[in-house]
Structures are given as structure tokens and as C-alpha cells.
Design goal:
195 residues; alpha+beta; 2 domains; 4 helices
């Protein structure tokens, strides 16, 4: 039952993100935080996927025109799939990474939302990776199969998965469109503390 509730919550957040995207607003970027986007790299792939879904919807409508009940059910599912694909991209656009006074909020749409306090960041570096192996204590948040930054933490933070599983992470790899600016912003507080 908990998994079903998590999935319903996930769908609701996707639809809320779609509404924010239409209204040209962002989520969680108020309060003086600095936003760092990551969604540009996946835009063409998501547009292509939405296009394929629209073509499939049209083809199924032609194939099922003589069976009105099946046509109605499949049409509903196909249209919902197109909306879902657009909402997935919208969630990535309106939920950027946010660097604030309390730390770095690492996000990927509505799937990942990890808060890392600044004092737990031991090191940060630009590191382009296109392959990611799963390992204990590591969280990879790739966009279009790549990450551009690696954070090593002095103490683990707890990551909660989509279905509620909790696990500690000490290394986080993520992507940001302006990786250099994010590295600079993260290292500036460290330089200020040591001077």
C-alpha cells in the first residue's frame, strides 16, 4: 500500500510540475537560493519521445476505429502517456538544483530530491562521466547518461528513493548545465571559512 501511495504522490508532483512549467515558474528556488539547471541536455530526447507517442496515438486510433470501447480506452492511455512524457521533462525544468545558505539541494525532476548541508561537502570537482556503475554509498544522478560534477561528503547524508527506501550516500555525481559556476559557488564558502 505504501508503494501505491508513493506512486500516486509521484504522479501528483509530475502534474503540479506541468502546471508550474505552463505558468513559467519554478519550485523551491525562493528564499535567496541560486538555481542551477540540468534539463537542457535531455530536451531533444524527450521531444522525440513525445513525438513518437503522438504518432502511436494516431496509428492506434486508426487501427481501433471499428472497436469504440477499445478505441476509447487506448486513446485515454495514449493521451495520458503523452502528457506524462511532457510532465517528466517539465519536472526537470521547474525543479533545478538549488544552492542556498543551508546547503545544496540536488534534484532530478520529482525522482530525486537530496539535501546536502554545506558543512558535509568535503570536496567538489568537475568530472565528466558517461558511464555509472552502482556502488554502495554512491548516488548517480545522470542527465542524458552523463554527470559533470562529483561531490565527496565528509559524513553521509540519507537518500530516500521514490518508493521510500532509505540509504546513506557519501559520494554524489550529478549534472549541471553550468558545472563550473556550481563548483565555484560551492568552493567560495569554503574559501571564506578558511580565510
Amino acid at each position: 500500500m505504501r508503494a501505491v501511495l508513493a506512486l500516486v504522490r509521484h504522479e501528483a508532483r509530475l502534474m503540479a510540475s506541468l502546471a508550474l512549467w505552463i505558468a513559467r515558474r519554478t519550485h523551491g528556488t525562493g528564499g535567496g537560493g541560486r538555481a542551477f539547471g540540468y534539463a537542457r541536455g535531455q530536451g531533444p530526447v524527450m521531444a522525440g519521445l513525445a513525438f513518437v507517442c503522438v504518432i502511436e496515438t494516431l496509428m492506434m486510433s486508426v487501427l481501433l476505429r471499428n472497436w469504440p470501447t477499445a478505441h476509447a480506452v487506448v486513446l485515454f492511455l495514449d493521451v495520458y502517456t503523452v502528457v506524462l512524457v511532457v510532465a517528466l521533462h517539465a519536472a526537470s525544468v521547474v525543479r533545478p538544483h538549488v544552492l542556498g545558505a543551508d546547503g545544496l539541494r540536488i534534484r532530478y525532476g520529482v525522482h530525486v530530491d537530496l539535501r546536502v548541508p554545506l558543512e558535509r561537502i568535503a570536496s567538489v570537482r568537475r568530472e565528466l562521466r558517461t558511464t555509472h556503475e552502482r556502488a554502495d554509498g554512491e548516488l548517480n544522478v545522470p542527465v542524458a547518461s552523463r554527470t559533470s560534477l562529483t561531490l565527496e561528503l565528509a559524513a553521509p547524508v540519507e537518500h530516500v528513493t521514490l518508493l521510500g527506501r532509505r540509504r546513506p550516500v557519501r559520494v554524489v555525481r550529478l549534472h549541471a548545465e553550468d558545472a563550473g559556476a556550481l563548483v565555484g559557488a560551492l568552493t567560495a564558502p569554503t574559501r571564506a571559512r578558511t580565510e
